[in-house]
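Handout, page 2. Input:
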Amino acid sequence: MPKKRREKMKQAELHNFLQRYFLANQCEILDNQQGVMTVQLTDELDETLMNRPFYWNYVKRVGGKGIPMKVTFITNPDKKEEKGEWIHFGSPRLHQIFNTLKDKGKVTKQYEKIDGLTHQTALTPWLNINLSIHYQGTHKRNEILSVGIHLITGAIVPEFLEKVNNVQLTPIIPDYCFTLTPIIRVSSALKRIEKYTENQISSHEDSWIDASHKKLQDEKELLDYFYSKQIEVHSEMSEEELEGVNAAKERYQSELAKLAERFEPKVSLEIINSGMFYFVQQTSFSLLKS
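Output:
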């Protein structure tokens, strides 16, 4: 897949994540098209994200009503020069949003919003885990993996957030609805998602790993050449010269550690957040067939 297309797909996943994030925090999305989203923040989220402590301290001190900001976020690479905040993997704003999820707790519970019911309706349970995968080597990159698992059948649905993007959700179970008891326990579901994630990572092309190892070896050879004379010990060396050699060895080991930290290929996972979702049968069937 061409690099530019792959980048657009990742940014589309990020856009869906942001949309869910702001809706879950009771923000109004004023405009949302072609990777450009304008959001009316709540007081709480403005205070959390927008770095206006003096303003909010003043509002609280005088007992007034604050005016939260409207912010435009851009995730479409073709529109990042437009007016708004360009947000992407690795950007400070995205890290800030991830941190708010950690601070608030990572688990949410959402129900499909259904109006006008007059009879009892069953809602089926799903567990959703959203992960940030960090690839480190010659080139650093990050991606979001959103996985859902049906807690009745055990079926796993990738790109979960994107697929439920148009489902209206509410944190309160609708009238006349009840939830089915999961057949698969959450602990078992987490293990299945972990295995699925490992398989996904393993299935990616691994040329970056070879490139990282080669780069690390090349840099190490240069370092060895640079320090070869400085760390060489001779029997006729004075005590002062030996101290100089020991100091050079310490610098050499320090530089080696920095090279390994920079170029050694690594993959790390971080759970952004997780949630229990309850959908009507028709929505669950659509997800299972997707």
